[in-house]
Specification:
The structure holds 2 protein chains of 2 kinds. Chain A contains 24 helices and 22 strands. By secondary structure, chain A is α+β, with helices and mostly antiparallel strands. In chain A, helix 21 packs parallel to helix 23. By secondary structure, chain B is mainly α. Chain B has a domain of about 190 residues. In chain B, a hairpin with a 2-residue loop joins strand 3 and strand 4. The chains are: A alpha+beta, B mainly alpha.
Chain lengths: ~675, ~575
Amino acid sequence: MAAKAHSLFEAAILRQAVVASFAKLHPRSLMKNPVMFVTGVGALLTSVGLFFRPEGEPLGFGLQVAVWLWFTVLFANFAEAMAEGRGKAQADALRKTRTRTMANLLTKDGSLEKVLAEKLRKEDIVMVIAGETIPGDGEVIEGVASVDESAITGESAPVIREAGGDRSAVTGGTRVLSDRIKVRITANPGESFLDRMILLVEGASRQKTPNEIALTILLSALTIIFLVVVMTLKFFGIYSGVPFSVTVLVALLVCLIPTTIGGLLSAIGIAGIDRLVQKNVLAMSGRAVEAAGDVNVLLLDKTGTITLGDRQAAEFLPARGVTVEELAGSAQLASLADETPEGRSIVVLAKRHGLRGRNLAEMPQARFIAFSAQTRMSGVDADGRHIRKGAADAVRNFVGGQFPADVEDAVTRISFQGGTPLVVAEGRRVLGAIYLKDIVKGGLSDRFERFRAMGIRTVMITGDNPLTAAAIAREAGVDDFLAEATPTDKLALIRKEQAAGYLVAMTGDGTNDAPALAQADVGVAMNTGTQAAKEAGNMVDLDSNPTKLIEIVEIGKQMLMTRGALTTFSIANDVAKYFAILPALLIGAFPVIGPLNIMRLASPQSAILSAVIFNAVIIIALIPLALRGVRFRPLGAGALLLRNLLVYGLGGLLLPFPGIKLIDIAVNAFHLV
Amino acid sequence: MDIYGWVQLAIFLGLLLLATRPMGLYLFRVLDPEGKTFLDPVLKPVERIFYRLMGVDPAVEHDWKRYAVSLLAFSLVGTLFTYAILRLQHLLPLNPQHLGPLSGDLAFNTSISFITNTNWQNYGGESTMSYLSQMAALALHNFTSAASGIAVAAVLVRGIAWHTAKTVGNFLVDLVRTTLYLLLPLSLVYAVFLVSQGTIQNFRPYVTAQTVEPAAAPQTIVQGPMASQVAIKMLGTNGGGYTNANAAHPYENPTPLSNFVQIFSIFLIPGGLTFYLGRMVKNRKHGWSIWGAMAALFLAGVLLCWWAEAAGNPRLHALGVASASGNMEGKEVRFGIFDSALFATVTTDASCGAVNTMHDSMTPLGGLVPLVNLHLGEVVFGGVGAGLYGMLVFVILTVFLAGLMVGRTPEYLGKKIESYDVKVSALAVLLLILDIMGFTAWAVVSKWGLAGLNNAGPHGFSEILYAFSSATANNGSAFAGLSGDTPWYDTTLAVSMMIGRFFFIMPVLALAGNMAKKKILPESGGSFPVAGPVFAILLVGTILIVGLLSFFPALAVGPIVEHYLMIRSNAVF
């Protein structure tokens, strides 16, 4: 993952961003950003104004103000181009996988025909053989294959894709490593997952999110207000006998309107999506990222998110009169052919009881009984012994309806402690129970605690019975759990939370998760999941790691915080700029107001120029912050507000004073005015 | 800045603190159509009669648009009614001085002025208005415009407190209940108190008195129904004086006690409304935080004003002609520096506009305080109702600007602040600024605007700026060096008052309607905190930055330049 993150200022990205910032000077492009549009018009006005200078205003001053105003616009364009460039770099890497793949199209008469991948349409059937690249998004309809998806996910371990079930979706551009599969194409060219992904990371299909729209409205209103302020000031000047030139009025206007946040707003949004991409999560819209920051309830699947995917055998609990060794031996025999992680963990545990490892080859006459959903037992018939292990009630039926009291106790106790009991029996004789334990991942409880402080509730979703679920929930530190959950229950829970006004985030992979994924405000589909799930969610996790949901929420919050911090900073900046420009405007007519020049700027012209330069340079200076985001801290809202207010509010108020002063010193040192 | 001032200030704030809760609880009952008050046995039948007369079903609530139409229609009828009386007062009874009719543009200006709760007075009360005009044309609106303001505030508070609601209330019900249960009873007691202090209340012709100086011409002493009018003018933050001298007149404001009570009564209802807000949204700390923010702004204003007035004009001090206690020009000697500064600050914190001192004669920084108060939109306790809804618009903007910093999209008391809310809130603020700045800019460069000016230079600028700020903010006080009774000023000021009132109320009602529709998200540790000192400081900061930044250039050209001229030059204007 880290390898995919681009360093902030990569030469190639920088180069294309510089070019793009000029291209973005086009009025149509500037129009999208009212604050920058006004700045652009101001720059144009001052440029034209150079030819109509009032007496006593040197050309050098007007020229420099005009140039810095153009820079202000260019810097804002550059910020946006940088954010887009980082996305484009990722998109280009993706695009490479798509070049000229050939596909084996299965024609109606059953023969194979070689065609170009981009000629494939929906519902076409193709055959993909080991070593070939899958030509488009689709669904495996026949066969099993291991597939290398590293082109998309960056994960080198191959994954299994097979017909039917929840692992049937394949993505164009990935490579089949073994076997052969028959794939039904599910997307027309240009509409595939990869295509959408490229569009999104490039920012081409980015639409403003609701909050961005609202913020743009407010920034526009502030711009209009300051337009009124500056235009009426011209009249006040006439009354007071001060002829303000176009240059100084435009300079004042541009310093007052919120250019900092106006210039960085879209970069912040693009960078938010980009940060998700670096975590191998694709958001289908900026809106989804915003919603992630707002989430109040996280629905977390127990398996894989809260517990390690697999349960482990932790203890043998023999029945009265049975030795641990005997139980372990039988359990080991019954598990030899059981390739599930649970089965393997029983063999491992048995070894620890001093039993030597056995293998299937030693027992050619043995008949192994595989686990099935009907019997819910597995076992072995060998040497006249009928050994079975399985779920408690299944084994109870097998032995004729009764467990010894101590085994019954053990089963209850294991359930209560959050484990899963398996019972081993030979014939009608119950040998004892095996304690299968869910292993809760480390560090989660702390993380959930921090979420609680941020006002986010965590709900564990599990198919376990309530007793087991409660115990694991307790151990993991989640706030709530939904036991014996079916997809319908999940959907109902989401609806219930939403009706109470909460925003809900969840992960899912199966087709039956699709309705819930669609209902959730943030639905993260696993890349290994079905096509239906991916279509329903508004994000896709390429690593298929359910824990990622937590990071997604953090990134969403971080993006919103960055936006808020820079807005506050931008507006707070105005105070200092006033103290730079207003005395400069008035001191000619009213020399007595000298003390108002609290920064002791050298001359009216250097004061105005310094404020304009500060205003432009601050955009460049804040690009790294806009792209990286402010540091995320999992704190309660009160603490966060206080902290950010001190840093960005108070900082925004104070920082420009020394900043403008330093620029003023430099301007005078180089005799720029 | 003497000890008596500090003691009085402490008592003032202390009493306000004590009165806030009971006033708020009473408002909570009055503004709930089904609320029970201790006056029900007497007033319930009267309330029913009003409903029957107007054909109102008190159980029916309206959406914000219908509410707005009712308010506008009521205001239009009121304006026409007042205009008619003022134009016909010579034909109507209760005119012992045989005062003639008002000119068309003065009558227009005055009707708008009272319907908008501004009470800008381009006329001299005792020399222009008959007793009937004072009572029926003017005092009537002192009640109804105050009640309308409270009603609009109630609507916005309901919008915030209610969820998934389509309606916001019934204007006529709110109007009747506020007038009947709140304003009338309080005014009655208040007027009796004023009479006890020496305020007159009669219908006698003016009295001619020969002064002890035999050569001097005899003086005419004003008479009339004064106490009843003064009570509501303060309580309803109207501010239109019965006499031209307003609260500096010995009849309108006879004693130090009446002076203190009059200042206090300006803040009484606005203070209570903050508690009402907290009670309605079930977050009393939020109400108190807003109270705290208001109190902080009030203190800052009164201290600056008091300090500036106490310091006086250093150049007069240097000449040895100034009063030792500070700038006494334009002040009533009975009240002195502190009471004048307190009155001036409070009357402009709220949209009252009654005065007991000449604001025009204050020092530049002393006069800056009232001017800034007007520019902030009078949200420091503010006009009855108008202060709270103005403040809530600032709260919405604050939450929106800073809300993102907690890592969520902005949320106020469990409601998402979205484009529409931002749009209408920003529109309201924008229109006010455009109104003040636009008219001021026109006035300072046009011959009509400059014609009324008695002072040149920065002070003349301040006078014009103050006039349009006062009109837009519906205050009514003036830097009275400006002669406002010209057709141009009558008209522009009237338009300015209308914009300031109705073009602010409409977006506020729209905001209320939109907020009422929203769901309320339950509060959690991640919700934006709207109670506590951090929020109060943030709110004050936003008000100062957003409110003041727009006016800083104008203030710089006016009072700020004037201040430096006073202390640092020998120029004389």
